Amino acid sequence: MTAAKSPQQAVASSTLCSIHGSLLTLATLTLISFTYISLKSLHSPFHDPSINSSPPPQVISRVENFVEEEDSPFSDIYHSPEIFRLNYREMEKNFKVYIYPDGDPNTFYQTPRKVTGKYASEGYFFQNIRESRFRTNDPDQAHLFFIPISCHKMRGKGTSYENMTVIVQNYVESLISKYPYWNRTLGADHFFVTCHDVGVRATEGVPFLVKNSIRVVCSPSYDVGFIPHKDVALPQVLQPFALPAGGNDIENRTTLGFWAGHRNSKIRVILARVWENDTELDIMNNRINRAAGELLYQKRFYRTKFCICPGGSQVNSARIADSIHYGCVPVILSNYYDLPFNDILDWRKFSVVLKELDVYQLKQILKNIPDAEFVALHNNLVQVQKHFQWNSPPIRYDAFHMIMYELWLRHQVIKY
Fold this sequence. Notes:
Blueprint: H1 7-42, H2 57-65, H3 81-94, E1 97-99, H4 120-131, E2 135-136, E3 144-146, H5 151-156, H6 161-178, H7 181-185, E4 190-194, H8 197-203, H9 207-212, E5 214-217, E6 232-233, E7 255-259, H10 266-275, E8 281-283, H11 296-302, E9 304-310, H12 318-326, E10 329-333, E11 352-354, H13 362-367, H14 371-384, H15 399-411
Parallel strand pairs: 1-2, 1-3, 3-4, 4-5, 5-6, 7-8, 7-9, 9-10, 10-11
Helix pairs in contact: 6-8
């Protein structure tokens, strides 16, 4: 036996039917409208092949700027492949950066010192940001503000550390007094870029800049004030590379491990002292003399499985990007190093990350890595090569775009 409906149930049922009926009517009318418009458009002169159907210039520009290319499938070398793919596309469409126009390009501002050598990453960023779709001339449309002062250019002109600090402080204070944007967040939506360690030292003399703004630096060490969730690790890439990229050449890699370079840090001194006479590890006590042969250093990367990357005067080393480029699995031997793109890439999928104390067991650690694991590391390494390459103009997923993605992630937490 069916129970009688209460008045509340009857009203609810009647209301529900009314809503369903309204939605059905609305859907029918919408379908009829779209059909009518579509049929009408077939007879429209704009669909006559003899008539130019190009959209207005502003529409063309928008299409060119925001064309969506098909992405290749992302593997598990990324911590969250699908999230990265979706966020990256969102960044490409929407992210805008305003570059402060102040400062003479012939002195320390706006333009790079050069885009070659160990500090090419700084130069490329200064150049790429102006070539990219991310730049806006309207500060009200900007998500972040770039402070275009180059300590590398100061270094090139022989400026002392003390004077660098004064120049940086005066420049930033002039921007604060001239524009309203810094004071909205006390600089949280501002960033600067420096690869040379002199830039880190010079800017550290301006505490409010280091504390509040986003630092994009090549020496991201936890023990000298680098804040991972705020600052960004800039990969140190020595470009142009002397030889083509390596990879998919495992059969040629017969040397277990290789390192050669200046002994300008404690870990490098220990590495050379412990392993320089080993028969399986190719460890040099110094740099390879160029007189010994052309590009011998770079060619060693091609025939080595694991390239040792100890920190130098700072935690970072251009040798990491060299190893990646030449297809040699990097062995990170540096404490407190926030590796570039560490929150995007799973470094343990394409490198070997060790503590400095592991240097004494280095050979055994590398020999204990199974062949299948080495093959996987090598193959994954080839996949990330594009992320450690600078280009002009920049291209999707290269080093510039990865840095912009890191900045995009950080801007999301800034509210005003």
